[in-house]
Specification:
Distance between the termini: 44 Å
Largest sheet: 6 strands, mixed
Order of helices and strands: EHHEEHEHEHEEEEEEEE
Number of helices: 5
Structural class: alpha+beta
Strand content: 25-35%
Length: 231
């Protein structure tokens, strides 16, 4: 087998920013359900910027930026181009609107292994995670003592090893990914931090800001199935 020199993948850093403001009047009164309105707004902004970052890490398409256009990082789905399943396996069903078969899933995992990967994570939309649980319905259990019926899938034992199964709200409904966790990392140029900005209009202001990107170490060791049935 001919060995080829590895090529370095590149990505752009993206700036994430959330501003918040609390009037001095609101700070002076006793708000319902909290001790400090400003601290509460900081927490809300942290949760919001966290969702923005998660969405970019999954769905970002990448952009170098220009005058009036911000830089954008490339996410996991855009990086994975080698192992992309649009339908194959024992069912023979291909194309959009299909349910993933066990054969298609195992073939996708095998493709990752063939490229040197050791995938350990099935990450998909909650729709596809639910369909995986239905696909593997033979493994459901009923506990008579607790009157508990288990219809979930936390680990998939494939012919190539065990993979943790998780859902993510940021992944498109028709997509399931096969990932090797240690082949991805978040590279922070400027970690997210809170900055108190000057008061304006009798209000206390602040901003959360950070700059980061996704580090893709070997996209060929990962895969994705797209165009899956969503109902």
């Amino acid at each position: 087998m001919e060995l080829t020199a590895p090529s370095r993948l590149t990505n752009y850093t993206q700036i994430f920013r959330k501003t918040f403001q609390v009037s001095n009047t609101q700070q002076a009164v006793d708000p319902a359900g909290m001790e400090d309105e400003y601290a509460f707004r900081v927490q809300v902004a942290l949760e919001a910027i966290g969702r923005d970052i998660e969405k970019a890490l999954v769905n970002g398409t990448g952009a170098s930026g220009a005058s009036g256009t911000a830089r954008k990082l490339k996410g996991i789905l855009a990086f994975i181009t080698t192992n992309v399943s649009t339908g194959y396996g024992s069912s023979g069903t291909t194309g959009s609107g299909r349910n993933i078969s066990e054969g298609e899933l195992n073939k996708l995992i095998q493709d990752c292994y063939s490229n040197g990967g050791r995938p350990d994570w099935l990450l998909g939309s909650y729709t596809q995670v639910n369909k995986l649980a239905q696909l593997m319905s033979a493994d459901r259990t009923y506990n008579d003592g607790n009157k508990e019926f288990t219809s979930s899938m936390l680990v998939y034992s494939s012919p190539f090893g065990r993979l943790a199964v998780e859902g993510d709200s940021q992944i498109p409904d028709d997509t399931l990914t096969v990932l090797q966790k240690d082949m991805w990392a978040v590279a922070q140029l400027r970690p997210v931090k809170k900055i108190d900005t000057p008061e304006t209009a009798d209000a206390k202001n602040g901003v959360l800001i950070g700059e980061l990107t996704l580090e893709a170490r070997a996209e060929k060791m990962n895969g994705k199935a797209t165009g899956l049935k969503t109902d």
